[in-house]
Every structure is written in C-alpha cells, then in structure tokens.
Amino acid sequence: MASGKYPPFGLRNKNLETVTDDFLYHFGFGNKTMDIPQVFGDTKFVCTGGSPVRLKLYAEWFSKECKIPCSENLSKSDRFCLYKTGKVIWVNISTCNEISLRIIRLGTSGGVGVEPGTVVVSKNAMNGELKEQYVQWIAGKRVERDVYLDEGLQNDLLAMAKEMKIPVETGLTMCADDFYEGQMRLDGFFCEYNPDDKLGFLKKIHEKGVRNIEMESTVKKFYKP
Q: Which CATH architecture has domain 108-224?
C-alpha cells in the first residue's frame, strides 16, 4: 500500500476477480499461453517510451553495458515491443500490476529554458490547462485525477546523472494534447498566434516550474471510488 501523499493501490475493477483467462490483447499473450509469473515475476523496473525501435536499442545497449542477456521480442502482436534484460522490462507502453515496480518513462521532449541535450527528470506532470491532473472523458462526463510521480526515484535518477556527469535538470513536464498548437509551435498547418504569444507562454510555464514539454507524461492516480 502507498503511504504519505500517494493514494492506496489495489484492484479497482471487481469484474476481474473471477477472470480465469486473462488475455493481454495488445501484447498477444495471456496466462493460458505464457507463464507470466515465471517470465516477469522478478521484474523491478519498467522502462517505457514511444518508439519500438528506440526501446529495442535501449534494451540491447543496456544488455551490452551490464553484460546480461536480452530476450527476444516477447510481444506476440505487432502493436508493441517487449524486451527483458534481467529484472528490467523495456516496452513502448506502460502496464503493470505490481506496486513494487518502478516505471521509468523515456522519450524525447522539447526543453523549456534548458540547454539542448539536457536530460530532464520530471518531478510531476502538468496538463494543457496547466494543472497537475489527468483529464479523461467517461460516459460523456469529465473526470479529473491528480497525477503523482515517484519522488524517491526522481532523486535517485538525478544523483545517478550527476555522478555520471550527464547534463540534467529537474522540474515539471507539461503534457500537451498535440504536437503543434498544444506546444505553441509555429510550423504547423494551423497557427492562430504569433511568435510573441509563443514566447510569452513559454515564459509563463517556465515560471511555473516547467522544464520540458511532451505528450504522454500525465498519469492516472490510483484512487478510491
């Protein structure tokens, strides 16, 4: 169970309590076709990202650097890649049901007030309304859920980057709803604002603590209904 500011974690969908054939359609396997506890039971870290090619390269690089075997692509569908190196999973989607896992989202982003090439370690995510929330529409109703990131993991990653002399900053990550207007880009097909508007917005979010922008960072909190 989570403690402090984090809400408790547990199974929320009671319909799953009686399910015997749990098939993960996006990965193309289930508990009837794979011994999931045997294959994934020792997992401690899950590294995710948007590009299957990039995640494969990460897995192979990690395998080489740490001198541990890298599995074949364990995903049986063409939707996602899924590699395992020791206790680390590399996948271009994040999904888990173990509270002990530490999930690390990897990806490219646009820096806000940081030098090019800087690694930004998020301390939390902010949506396009500049709120630290994940917004979802369910049955025609707007549902807002607070977002949480692991402060301990954040500090560990910062310390590791500094030890390895990797340029690093920490701050909020803004999660835009699209690649162009949501990020105030000037090179999209639609653009109804000017460069001054863009710079004013970037200054505003920088003052709020934002250090980078991407499109996947807001995460649902686990909540009590």
A: 3-Layer(aba) Sandwich (3.40)
- Residue 184 has a CB neighbour count (10 Å cut-off) of 20
pLDDT over 70 (residue 111):
yes
Helix locations, the chain, DSSP H: 36-40, 52-66, 151-163, 195-207
Q: How many CA atoms lie within 13 A of 222 on its CB side?
A: 17
Per DSSP, helices labelled H in 6-137 are 36-40, 52-66
pLDDT in tens, 24-76: 888 899 989 999 999 999 999 988 887 888 899 999 999 999 999 999 999 99
Q: Give me the count of residues in the chain.
A: 225
Residue 128, SS3 per DSSP: coil
Collapsing DSSP states into helix, strand and coil, what is residue 89? strand
The domain limits of the chain are 24-107, 108-224
